[in-house]
């Protein structure tokens, strides 16, 4: 089963819309309340990064269901300035916006799989998956 | 959207019952500080029972408002943090160590009374 839907991130309120849609999909997949909160929080961090650093982009969700396992896949895609030092943004406490610097390393801990591709001047794609246990 | 702030004797009581977006959170921070100033309240309870997600931005706003209120002379206690919220905050690496918390509104008021009597 493949079912993909996207939320476009252009204004602040879209961050809320994205995490609400992600939570709804997480509920449908069968995640419990703690994992629902983990997934919604991860989406919130990814959407805020798009809003703050790229200005615009989108978050796409896909419910994954194979014979062996179920899960949710989240892609955060933007065409912003890109991340020049990937190692640096994955450090806890690193922030250029005066935030807590918990964003990306936090998302990695909240989710099961985490992959980031970024090209300077072309944009960033972050793909992340949480599996149902 | 504005979050209502109720006054009870020397305390201010807030129950956050709405999905917190960034603007609402920042507005709440300003409203609370204004209300502390105008009412002369010495204690504040912010109840988070109905909040099912706290991301790093909201956590920063809440942590900051506790410190800001403290600067003004009012003690803040956060109450009713849900199990799922506690788990995600620690996953995010946010410990809110200097923030007073209590299980629910009742315990929060008891904690405030103790802190203010000291």
Describe the fold and architecture.
The complex is a heterodimer of chains A (133) and B (118). By secondary structure, chain A is of the alpha+beta class. Chain A has a single domain (2-131), classed as Histidine kinase-like ATPase, C-terminal domain (Heat Shock Protein 90). Chain A has helices at 13-29, 33-54, 86-89, 103-110, and strands at 2-9, 57-65, 70-78, 113-119, 123-131. Chain A has a five-stranded antiparallel beta sheet with strand order 1-2-3-5-4, with helices on one face. The longest helix of chain A is centred in the first third of the chain and has 22 residues, at 33-54. The mean pLDDT of chain A is 90. With 118 residues, chain B is α/β, with parallel strands linked by helices. Chain B has one domain (6-117): Transcription Regulator spoIIAA (2-Layer Sandwich), CATH 3.30.750.24. Chain B contains four helices and five strands. A five-stranded mixed beta sheet of chain B has the order 1-2-3-4-5, with helices on both faces. The model of chain B has no long low-confidence stretch (mean pLDDT 94). Chain A binds chain B through residues 12-13, 15-16, 19-20, 23, 33-34, 36-38, 40-41, 44-45, 48, 92, 99-100, 102-103, 105-106, 109-110, and chain B through 19, 21-23, 52-57, 59-60, 82-85, 87-88, 91-94. Chain B: It comes from Salimicrobium album.
Task: Give the key terms.
heterodimer; A: 133 residues; alpha+beta; five-stranded antiparallel sheet; 4 helices; 38% helix; 32% strand; B: 118 residues; alpha/beta; Transcription Regulator spoIIAA; five-stranded mixed sheet; 17% strand
In short:
Chain A: This is Serine/threonine-protein kinase RsbT. Chain A has 133 residues and is α+β, with helices and mostly antiparallel strands.
Task: Draw up the topology in text.
The complex is a heterodimer of chains A (133) and B (118).
Chain A (H helix, E strand, L loop, with lengths): L1 E8 L3 H17 L3 H22 L2 E9 L4 E9 L7 H4 L13 H8 L2 E7 L3 E9 L2
Antiparallel strand pairs in A: 1-2, 2-3, 3-5, 4-5
Helix pairs in contact in A: 1-2, 2-4
Chain B lengths: L5 E3 L2 E5 L6 H18 L3 E5 L8 H17 L2 E5 L3 H10 L8 E2 L2 H13 L1
Parallel strand pairs in B: 2-3, 3-4, 4-5
Antiparallel strand pairs in B: 1-2
Helix pairs in contact in B: 1-2
InterPro entries (chain A): HATPase_C_sf, HATPase_dom
Keywords (chain A): Kinase, Transferase
Protein name (chain A): Serine/threonine-protein kinase RsbT
């Amino acid at each position: 089963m493949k079912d993909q839907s996207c939320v476009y991130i252009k204004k602040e309120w879209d961050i809320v819309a994205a995490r609400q849609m992600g939570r709804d999909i997480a509920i449908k997949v069968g995640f419990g309340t703690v994992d629902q909160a983990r997934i919604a929080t991860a989406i919130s961090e990814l959407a805020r990064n798009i809003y703050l650093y790229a200005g615009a982009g989108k978050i796409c969700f896909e419910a994954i269901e194979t014979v062996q396992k179920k899960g949710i896949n989240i892609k955060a895609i933007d065409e912003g300035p890109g991340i020049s030092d990937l190692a640096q943004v994955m450090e806890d406490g690193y922030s250029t916006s005066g935030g807590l610097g918990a964003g990306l390393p936090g998302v990695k801990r909240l989710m099961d799989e985490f992959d980031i591709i970024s090209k300077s001047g072309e944009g960033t794609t972050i793909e992340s998956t949480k599996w149902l246990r | 959207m504005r979050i209502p702030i109720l006054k009870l004797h020397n305390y201010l009581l807030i129950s956050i019952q709405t999905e917190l977006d960034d603007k609402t959170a920042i507005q709440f921070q300003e409203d609370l500080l204004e209300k502390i100033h105008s009412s002369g309240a010495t204690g504040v309870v912010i109840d988070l029972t109905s909040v099912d997600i706290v991301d790093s931005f909201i956590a920063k706003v809440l942590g900051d408002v506790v410190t800001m209120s403290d600067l003004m002379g009012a003690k803040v206690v956060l109450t009713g943090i849900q199990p799922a919220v506690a788990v995600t905050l620690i996953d995010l690496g946010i410990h809110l160590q200097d923030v007073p918390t209590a299980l629910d509104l009742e315990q929060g008021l008891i904690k405030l009374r103790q802190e203010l009597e000291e």
